[in-house]
User: Fold TAXI family TRAP transporter solute-binding subunit from Duganella margarita.
Amino acid sequence: MSKILKFTQFSFRDLIVAAAPTVLTIVGICLLAYWLVDPAPPRTVRLGTGQENSAYEDFGKKYAAALAKHGVKVTLVQSAGSSENLRNLKEGKVDIAFVQSGSTNEEAAEREGLSSLGSLFVEPLWLFLREEKGQPPITQLTQLRGKKINYGAKGAGSPRLFRQVLELNGVEKDEVQRFSLANTPATVELLEGRIDGLVFTSAPEAPLIQMLLQTPGIRLFDFNQAEAYSRKLPFLTHVVLPQGIVDLGRNIPSEDYNLIAPTATLVARDDLHSALVDLFVQAAATIHGGAGWFQQQGQFPSAKYTEIPVDPEAAKYYKSGPPFLQRYMTFWLANFFDRMWVLVVALGALILPLSKVIPPLYVWRIRSRVYKWYGQLRAVEQRVEEAPAATRMQVYEEQLKRLDEIEELVNQVSIPLSFADGLYGLRSHIQFVRKRILFLMGEGSPAGVEAVPV
Assistant:
């Protein structure tokens, strides 16, 4: 019979088992908070752009490529332009869209739950007119009376703006033959001579703008009163298209042109996740931050030039730059830690009381390895005490064998040294019960047998 006891310095297994309820509770709280405290940002977002071959469409593709690097899919939703984008935002058909300044006001935006992510670039009001042989060039908008002018498709931003400009010049809406074609077919109509002019509001990068600026027989209207327009309509700015900016070698254009320009802004619904707001604003800084025909390096994107209230997350970016964690981590990892800070504070308050449960559980688990054998010892004693007279000796012998089995199993128990006293006490109690049975069998003497409390 082996008498070797198994001792260890410390039981990591028992500590893990004792700590399991606390750890599982903390993990459960973390998982619950992960979904409920601040839901993860969606991996898809709908961006309202513009017409085919427009600057909005071109920039929309750039945003889609920028966000795809972070695992976010941007679905581009084409529209007639600014006005339709604004309507789609209000109806929830898109999450974010390009909107021209002057399309709405602060009160309406707040009422509809919209916020600005900042202004991106100026998009001048381009009025292209056919040059007629033998006729002097048009230098005043009052000369448009009776002309066939394409204002732009319904839902675009240019029709509303051009009507305001004509009203400032005292031109009534029925004094100009209005057409509402999309940009591409309107350009075809102009080149074919079926209309006299067309209006765009677009960044100069738009392919149609680039083409018309270099097309013989097509002349850009010079808003020589641009400064006055900017005072009358505060959402407009006075910009200058410099001589030769399109083609220096061919000197296109051959002179400076004064233009009036609203700004293009990114407008989002208030329920757009704040992490996506950060991504869009960071993408805007990359896409629109350089110098251009009408802007200086770093002038855009900006919290200025927009009548719609700026989203708090976007305003924070314009003030302090990208979030601290996103400067050193991937977007999703930084977002995870940013969302979990509330949970960390809560866990700080929970871990201390929960940790106090672990030591008692650890002690109970270790001591239970010893205590459970006392039930076996008590069972042996009960069988001895209740043994019938006829089979008493047989019962005694059986219980002595049972004690040997119990002792053998006890000697195989692994227990930390700090709890060894309990194991030695159990062994002494096993020996006490054995001596008692031997005494009852007449093989031992009660003399010298000291009772050990069980």
Observations:
- The first helix runs from residue 12 to 36.
- Confidence is low (pLDDT under 50) at residues 444-454.
- The longest strand covers residues 114-122.
